[in-house]
Amino acid sequence: MDVQWLLIIHGLLTLLVVVSFLCGQWPIFEGTPIQRIHYFLTFGAYDYFLRFVGFVFGEKAINAILSVEYFCCDRPNPVLQIIYLAIIGITYYFIAKSSFSYIPGYYLSGFHSFADPGTVKAENVSQYQSAYPYDNIIYTEKECSTCKIPKPARSKHCSICNRCVARFDHHCGWMNNCIGERNTRYFMAFLLWHLFLCLYGIVALGFVLAGRLKELRVVYILTVYYGIENSFRKLAPHVVQWLLGSYNTQILLMVFLAVVSLLLAGFFGYHANLCRTNTTTNETVKWQDHMNWQRKVNEARASAAALKASINGMSSERKPPDSKWKTFFRRSPLEDAGAVVKNNIYDKGILHNVWECHGSSCSSDLSSLLDREVDSVYYWSCSSITVEVTSTNAGCGSATTSSGEGAIAGEEWGLVGREFWVVLGLDWG
């Protein structure tokens, strides 16, 4: 039983590390040990390592490590592909060494067939200029400062590949390529086939072990010679203990493949949901930043309105205070600031979205999308501290903060002045 407890503890620690590494930056884990573990795994350990190297070997050693970091993390390189091949090769070696001698066996025959569909680069972005309209929220018409070409909506310049990519999702180190307009379907196939491959390995190893149990009559020996009750609850601990002692390599491989399968299933499900809503990973981050900024705007307006109301109240006749119950049930001005809504104009329905994600949008009919009006759209530039508003509502316009006056969605905010931008964490221009 000691071995089983060690295996359980090992699995729980592995799960804690994986969850902390992948999810520790989520707001739900803020201030928890998971966030601290995430920081240590992603920044802290490396920072301590650099300090140790600098203390022992000096500045030259740190510069050498930073050069390696630049090559591995900021430039196109085959490092992760080499690691991938090493993982696949080592796993295949141990499976072949420990389990292939039992194939074909009692349950498993000797056939298998899996294929990788391959990948395609996303290049020549000029043809995508008319594919998507600018929503003037997270995408505005501008030029790429590096490539010096017009920047289509939904595109992004990848600093690693040093090129602009249409409908940019992310840079995948495992494929050593950007994931964008033309190869999203290949990336999804990459995840799906590897998920199936890992699941196939789990099932194959399970059949191998089940076959060995059957061929060696382990259950019969345990029930007849050792007098153990023939029930799953009674037999399972003894069977697991026997498998760990006799076929520990296969058990560890099954655990490893199960963990990898969960990760692949999670990534595939996440990107499948992005395809469902016609969103990319890059756009998810942009929307989160915009919604956080808009929430601060709403809170600043509510604070200014509350301040103005309190000033007006001080100058008017003193009114009797509200009852405790009325004060208790009254909503805070910040709660009345208004909900921040994500307005994704590229979401055209699940069928169209999935078809577009797995095909090319350049040949799609976007006339209906181009005719859509954008209501209450905000975008800003921190360098010039400019807020511009586009809306179908009357009374809306644009304003700069240099004068501290202007109109946003028909509401005057000149009263807020400099404090408005202090709340947003921006410098007064």
From TrEMBL:
Top-rank EC class of the record's enzyme: transferase
Catalytic activity as recorded in UniProt: L-cysteinyl-[protein] + hexadecanoyl-CoA = S-hexadecanoyl-L-cysteinyl-[protein] + CoA
Any one GO biological process: protein targeting to membrane
Principal location: membrane
EC number, UniProt record: 2.3.1.225
Gene Ontology molecular function terms on file: protein-cysteine S-palmitoyltransferase activity
Domain of life: Eukaryota
Domain Palmitoyltransferase DHHC: 140-288
Membrane topology summary: Multi-pass membrane protein
TM region positions: 6-27, 39-58, 78-95, 186-210, 251-270
Written domain comment of the UniProt record: The DHHC domain is required for palmitoyltransferase activity.
Family, per entry: Belongs to the DHHC palmitoyltransferase family.
Protein name: S-acyltransferase
